[in-house]
Write a structure and sequence with these properties.
Distance between the termini: 34 Å
Shape: flat
Strand content: 25-35%
Helix content: under 10%
Number of helices: 7
Strand order of the largest sheet: 12-14-17-16-15-18-19-13
Structural class: mainly beta
Mean pLDDT: 82
Largest sheet: 8 strands, mixed
Radius of gyration: 40 Å
């Protein structure tokens, strides 16, 4: 049986040294799968330390065989286990994770219990470095967070500009720097002797990069680099390698919109590179959208076309107006530029344009001006909100708590997002277990008479033993094949809320019983007669190991009202959830004969062959399979 491990006190360290000199105390409680502590139990714990990422291979592994106490608690020290690895060689610099595995039976089979990050600093780890921290500072330590901050501060750093620089250090993310205007000892830096610390010194001239209008002080010596305005984005068409201050002029290759539908009238802006410099371009030029030949093309008017500066004369920006013909073929089109529609000289532009089917037959223009009736979800808070939709089609999917008995119930929700906050008993072994409870409140009580469930008799989820409604009533129509009420539904009556379920497994193989004796009242064959047949058989037949006796005395899935089906009930099972059903043998029957509760004569009773669905009768002393049913 799988066991569970619950950590009750686990001090995970944020190890900020290259190597850790200490072991780490670890305390946890082991539970079994039913939620009970593994008290006074020998278990084996396998620990792995994963460096940098939680999915890394273990860099260090050790085993501990420990004993739990009366409460399932055990303790160990990480680094003291059985291992062939070197704990002191671990490099904690980029973080670490602890992998915990449990072998509850000492059989060598370990179950992964979890992987957790080392996320705080143990006091023991701090003590090793306390000698580096001034006494005046260490006396102010009053919290674990204070230790974390101080340990970081007094470790060495590989940045030569930091106050804790060391040429032998390998750490860069714990560097400490002096405050502006002060040195690492906290002393004021006053180079001009004016009695004011040199805070935020800058170049006084805006023509230099080092200029800062918010500086408190200025010094000409700081003026080093002249400003060169331009585009500093290397991916832009007009990138300037000598520019050091971006002026917002960058032009990134683009086309917008990049697609449209038949009947659309669009203004398309684009920028990019051209294969040939087209110096004669003017507003009389045209843009050709061509698919696979010049005969399958349509044209747009060039409203604007600009070549970028002379250094980049093969780059451009353009604005094109186009109408997509109603009969134009859907697909991808290349874009070319020429002097007229009849031109033999076309300049290729680097972008493609896509013609896509119009949504609900609407053009982009119709969508934009609101003249299109476009059905969809118009609720902006819904998961499937469609900002283009003009008419709501009631398809909106809204998440929330759908349990009407809960304080945070959302009446508008149609998708349960598991946000319900329900306090109650969450342990199923207790009689007042609430299947809908999300937070245990300590109310579990073996002597409780409270039973949670559905109290609405008009639904198929109603249970007469329930005393408190917990919002589980299901008002939808019940379908054959549903797994409810202790079994699988094979018949639903005209109300849609009541019917019959068959147990999920065969009860066994038994004789019908009382061969040679006529059982009064046990001759019902129709759906609905099986229960009375079963009662009559048990009352009229003194034999106790019969199909009817075992059915009536069965307890399955906590239900005690099972019985032997009548002939027609058995046939219904074959035709709905057996081999004759539309979904096949979802009831899990064998290809054999099953007893019904319907008597045929003194020596004979009805059965149904689940291999072919044929019904027949046979001697009562014969043994047949039994599948019990119950009504709901």
């Amino acid at each position: 049986m799988k066991r569970l491990l619950h950590t009750v006190l686990l001090l995970f360290p944020l190890l900020v040294v290259a190597q850790s000199p200490q072991g780490i105390n670890y305390h946890a409680v082991a539970y079994d799968a039913n939620g009970f502590e593994l008290a006074n139990h020998e278990i084996s714990i396998r620990l792995g330390i994963l460096l940098e990422t939680a999915d890394a291979e273990s860099s260090y592994t050790e085993n501990h065989q420990v004993s739990t106490n009366d409460f399932g608690l055990f303790s160990l020290v990480i680094s003291d286990g059985t291992t062939t690895d070197d704990y002191s060689a671990l490099n904690w610099r980029n973080g670490a994770f602890l992998k915990v595995e449990l072998d509850a039976n000492l059989d060598g089979n370990y179950t992964l219990m979890g992987i957790n990050s080392f996320s705080s600093v143990p006091y023991a780890l701090y003590s090793t470095f306390a000698e580096n921290i001034p006494t005046a500072v260490s006396n102010q330590i009053d919290s674990l967070q204070a230790i974390v901050n101080l340990v970081y501060q007094y470790f060495e750093c590989e940045d030569s500009n930091s106050c804790n620089y060391s040429p032998t250090s390998t750490w860069y993310d714990n560097c400490v720097y002096a405050e502006d205007g002060y040195n690492c000892d906290g002393e004021c830096i006053d180079t001009d002797g004016d009695g004011i610390c040199d805070v935020d010194m800058a170049c006084p001239y805006p023509e230099y990069i080092e200029y800062d209008s918010t500086a408190v002080g200025y010094n000409d010596i700081l003026c080093q680099t002249l400003v060169v305005f331009g585009c500093t984005d290397w991916s832009a068409l007009n990138y300037q390698s000598n520019a050091n201050l971006d002026d917002g002029s960058c032009i990134v290759p683009h086309i917008s919109p990049s697609q449209g539908s038949n009947g659309d009238v669009l203004s398309v802006s684009m920028s990019g590179s051209i294969y040939d410099q087209y110096s004669q371009t003017n507003t009389n030029s045209v843009i050709r959208f061509s698919q696979y030949s010049s005969t399958n093309s349509f044209f747009g008017s060039l409203l604007e076309f600009n070549l970028l500066n002379s250094l980049y004369s093969y780059n451009y920006e353009a604005l094109v107006e186009l109408f997509i013909p109603e009969d134009q073929e859907v697909g991808t089109y290349t874009i070319e530029m020429g002097s007229s529609e009849n031109s033999n000289d076309w300049t290729m532009l680097e972008h493609n344009f896509e013609i896509v089917p119009a949504p609900y037959g609407c053009t982009q223009q119709e969508l934009a001006d609101g003249s299109c009736v476009y059905y969809g979800c118009t609720d902006s808070i819904a998961y499937n909100y469609d900002e283009i939709a003009t008419t709501d089609d009631e398809s909106c999917l809204v998440g929330g708590c759908m349990n009407p008995t809960v304080e945070n119930y959302n009446a508008d929700a149609n998708i349960d997002d598991e946000s319900c906050i329900i306090y109650g008993c969450t342990l199923s072994i207790f009689p007042n277990y609430n299947s809908q409870a999300t937070i245990g409140d300590g109310s579990c009580d073996m002597s409780s008479t409270d039973v949670f469930g559905c109290t609405d008799e008009s639904t198929w989820t109603y249970q007469d033993i329930v005393t408190i409604d917990n919002g589980t009533c299901n008002y939808s129509e019940l379908d054959v094949g549903s797994l409810v009420h202790g079994g699988i539904v094979f018949y639903v009556d005209e109300t849609g809320a009541h019917g019959l379920v068959a147990a999920m497994e065969d009860l066994g193989q038994f004789e019908w019983g009382c061969w040679g004796a006529r059982i009064s009242g046990a001759n019902g064959q129709a759906i609905g007669t099986g229960y009375q047949n079963t009662l009559d058989i048990v009352a009229g037949c003194s034999e106790t190991n019969t199909a009817a006796f075992n059915a009536l005395n069965s307890t399955t899935e906590n239900y005690t009202d099972w019985y032997l089906p009548s002939k027609d009930e058995l046939m219904e099972m074959y035709n709905t959830i057996g081999y004759g059903g539309p979904e096949g043998n979802i009831g899990g029957f064998e290809n054999v004969r099953y007893w019904s509760s319907s008597e045929y004569y003194d020596n004979l009773a009805w059965h149904v062959n689940f291999n072919n669905g044929y019904s027949g009768y046979h001697d009562k002393y014969s043994t047949r399979k039994v599948r019990i049913i119950r009504a709901f």
